[in-house]
Amino acid sequence: MPQTITTGFRKLVDDALAEIETIDVETAIGLHGRDDVVFVDLRDIRELARTGRIPGAVHAPRGMLEFWIDPDSPYHKPVFARDARFVFFCAGGWRSALAAQTAQRMGMRPVCHIDGGFGAWEKAGGPIERPEPAPGEAAS
To answer: How would you class 134 by CB atoms within 10 Å of its CB: exposed for 0-12, middle for 13-18, buried for 19 or more?
Structure first.
């Protein structure tokens, strides 16, 4: 017998959005490159390879985020202990809303996420480092 889901992902995302700061892509582009701001890319490594990266963004796979944030974790990454504003993003904004909520609940401040994620960033013309074509592929 299949399990019954009592709280769907949309409710989880909506609850997260009610707790966190959401910034529009224009604001995010304005923050890009500042020394006191850390962009955190939560997308899967295959997504980065396919679509590119925001220059300077820290790649933090969503499944490792809690472990990388917590200084008591053997997997802690010092970048998450910086005195900075953390801007989370994913492809479209759902994972980053959940990640920003988690980071905030763990005590990180200030945190926010980009409404529309990398897709909105790309559409708005934000800077992107494109992946190198694989050997034998034509550059686009």
So the answer is: exposed
Question: And the tokens for 66?
Answer: 């809690």
Low-confidence ranges of the chain (pLDDT < 70): 134, 136-140
Q: How many CB atoms lie within 10 A of CB 115?
A: 18
> What is the CATH code for 20-123?
3.40.250.10
pTM, two decimals, is 0.91
22 three-class SS: strand
Give me the DSSP letters along 59-118: E--GGGHHHHH-TTSTT--GGGGSSSEEEEE-SSSHHHHHHHHHHHHTT--SEEEETTHH
Would you list the domain boundaries of the chain? Answer: 20-123
The answer to whether residues 60 and 87 touch, using CB atoms and an 8 Å cutoff, is no
